[in-house]
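About this split. The held-out portion is used to measure sequence recovery: a designer receives only the structure tokens and must propose an amino acid at every position. Recovery is the fraction of positions where the proposal matches the reference. Here is one held-out target exactly as it appears in the evaluation file.
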């Protein structure tokens, strides 16, 4: 069965990026057909988008953030991305050991950037 024959539904995700005169993002808006919150565009200050390319077998990325994204906001976004990647990794591979180590690093990152309070050492 071809990939096209397996598709029973399509869903669209749209991203709009507003640029200033220097082509620096000043606004990011997105919407998704399947968003349970509705069809309206939602505002964002940053985005990290990755595609695994079938032919090159490499990851193609689009990382954008607006000029007003503060460092502490980027720290928070990276922390949640690292945590989410560890959850995605364990769901897709079942490798709990490596996912646990990734989660430990996310925790370390969160504490070092003060996104999280320091762990209490006993």
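Reference sequence for scoring:
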């Amino acid at each position: 069965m071809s990939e096209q024959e397996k598709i029973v539904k399509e869903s669209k995700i749209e991203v709009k990026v507003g640029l200033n005169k220097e082509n620096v993002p000043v606004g990011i808006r997105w919407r998704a057909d399947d968003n349970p919150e509705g069809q309206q565009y939602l505002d964002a200050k940053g985005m990290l988008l990755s595609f695994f390319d079938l032919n090159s077998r490499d990851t193609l990325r689009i990382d954008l953030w607006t000029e007003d994204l503060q460092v502490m906001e980027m720290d928070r976004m990276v922390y949640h991305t690292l945590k989410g990647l560890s959850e995605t990794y364990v769901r897709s591979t079942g490798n709990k050991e490596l996912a646990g180590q990734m989660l430990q690093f996310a925790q370390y990152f969160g504490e070092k950037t003060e996104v999280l309070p320091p762990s209490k050492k006993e």
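Annotator remark: Residues 56 and 112 are 35 Å apart (CA to CA).
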